[in-house]
Amino acid sequence: MPDTQKIGIDAVAVHVPKYFIDLKTLAFANQVDPDKYTIGLGCRRMAVAAPDEDPVTMAVRAATTLLKNYSINPRDIGMLIVGSESGVDGAKPIASYVHGMLGLPSCCRSFDTKHACYSATAGLRMASDWCAVRSASTGKKALVIATDVARYSVGSAGEPTQGAGAVALLIGPDARVLEFDLYPEAVHTEEVMDFWRPSYRSTALVDGDASINSYLDSLVHTYSLYQKASDLDINRYDHLLFHVPFPKMAYKAFSRLYELEVSQRRNGVAPLKQEYAARTEPSLWANRELGNIYSGSLYLSLAGLIERSTDPISGKRAGLFSYGSGSCGEYFSGRLGTDPQAWKGRTGIEEGMKRRVELDYRKYLEFRWAGERLAYEGSYFEELIDPAVRSDGIAFLGIRDHQRIYATYNVSRDRDSEPAKPAQREVPVFNSL
Q1: φ/ψ of residue 98, rounded to 5
Q2: Is 324 helix (H, G, I), strand (E, B) or coil?
Q3: Active site residues
Q4: Strand, helix or coil for residue 237
Q5: b/e string for 374-384 if b means 16 or more Cβ within 10 A?
Q6: Alpha helix segments (H runs only) across 194-296
Q7: Which of 170, 193, 255, 402 matches a 20 to 30 Å C-alpha distance to 218?
Q8: Rounded to the nearest 5 degrees, what angle is found at the Cα of 178, between the Cα atoms of 333 and 61?
Q9: From CA 53, how far away is CA 60, in angstroms rounded?
């Protein structure tokens, strides 16, 4: 019988959108010094969702990669939670679409969580509590998926902090990736209007200064609570991971914790840049490539760390900070798994990066406009989307009779041949890939 006290992340997989735009290309189009994006924000590239990609298709692809690469039987999933701030319906959750497309069992609890970029962490914590009680007696695990498309107005200050992607997390008692430390909760909630998206808008609004200040205040509150409860200072963490709206924010966050440690006159704290390079920088390479994926950005850092770390990380302790505007923040920690073979080459990041295609600025705008058109009633028109643009395996084809239409494709076909006729949700996606 598994130890119900040993709960954590058993597997992690990422869906990397097929298309991206280089931030230098976007800077030239916006008549902005490229250094403002690449150095000021710390970004290199920005993932762009194809017109037929949406939060549902990305969630399904991330989960499919996890189930396949880690040899997980869908029947072993007893809870499905989708964390997102990019909901596709005011009532029907993304989780219900994903449940059906993955072919998960009917005796599986499913729902969405929403609190801006904290959404996935809220789901992860709920899933962890459920597993601690249920996994030992049922053998079931929980699947938590973070899926988002970050979108701001064209030409706005927030545009270079866009991105898209999904991260799937399997939660259970095996905890092959990250076993959570058992310390009291460290959370901080405070109502603030720092970032929001009214229901009548397709793009978000943000008060940049208020958002950064709220993020850092929440970090200090939660880290201090956790430090007091656990007696862990900065030297007890081998890695510190943060919510990443843009990579430079991780540096701001680390710097604030470093200042806090120095103010408390902790001994043995190395110079700031040295500490940052060792504890946080190695986790950010994937964030620099995909941009802001909202609820999944923290877990994209975790996946990036375990996939490409050049230093031995087995058994090392990681501290994690999650923040959602509005606002809610949480700090927690855990030990990385002891067997790298449990995750190496299984996250899907490297494969996703290899198949990416760069967009020029004109095509980037076309993708945006086409994607927005598909979000309205009567938009379903299969030929609207160039077959070359269709995502492998699953596509969103628009709305007909007020219902979202999805199709699955035979990905084993020759890429240069005629595209397969879509089978509109007739076959569970996991079984068709």
Answers
A1: -65, -40
A2: strand
A3: 85, 117, 243
A4: coil
A5: beeeebbebee
A6: 208-230, 247-263, 272-279, 285-290
A7: 170
A8: 120
A9: 11
**What are the chain's domains?**
8-354 (3.40.47.10)
Length of the chain (residues): 433
- The H or E element containing residue 88 is none
* CA–CA gap between residue 233 and residue 261 (Å, rounded): 8
Q: Which tokens is 359 given? A: 């967009």
- Weakest mean pLDDT among 10-14, 63-67, 420-424: 420-424
> What distance in Å separates the CA atoms of residue 328 and residue 115, rounded to the nearest whole number?
8
User: Which residue in this structure is represented by tokens 């969702």?
Assistant: 49
Q: Which two tokens stand for residue 418?
A: 């005629």
Dihedral angle sign, alpha carbons of residues 251, 254, 258, 263: positive
Taking the C-alpha atoms of residue 384 and residue 347, their distance in angstroms, rounded to an integer, is 32
Instruction: Note the pLDDT tens digit of each residue in 249-304.
Output: 999 999 999 999 887 765 567 889 999 999 999 999 999 999 999 999 999 999 99
| Mean pLDDT value across the chain | 90
CA distance 11 to 22: 30
The phi, psi pair for 51, rounded to 5°, reads -55, -30
Query: Which H or E element spans position 178?
Result: strand 178-180
383-389, long-range: CB < 8 A, 24+ apart: 384/51, 385/51, 385/52, 387/419, 389/50, 389/51, 389/52
Q: Are 159 and 138 in contact (CB under 8 A)?
A: no
The DSSP call for residue 159 is: G
State the pTM of this model. Answer: 0.92
Beta-strand relationship, 109-113 and 205-206:
unpaired
What is the distance between the alpha carbons of residues 26 and 36, in angstroms, rounded to a whole number? Answer: 11
Which residues on adjacent β-strands are paired with residue 145? 82, 168
How confident is the model over 364-420, as pLDDT tens digits?
A: 999 999 988 988 898 887 655 566 666 667 889 999 999 999 987 643 333 333 333
DSSP 8-state assignment for residue 90: S
Rounded to 5 degrees, what are φ and ψ at 122? -60, -45
129-188 pLDDT tens trace: 999 998 878 889 999 999 999 999 999 999 999 999 999 999 999 999 999 999 889 999
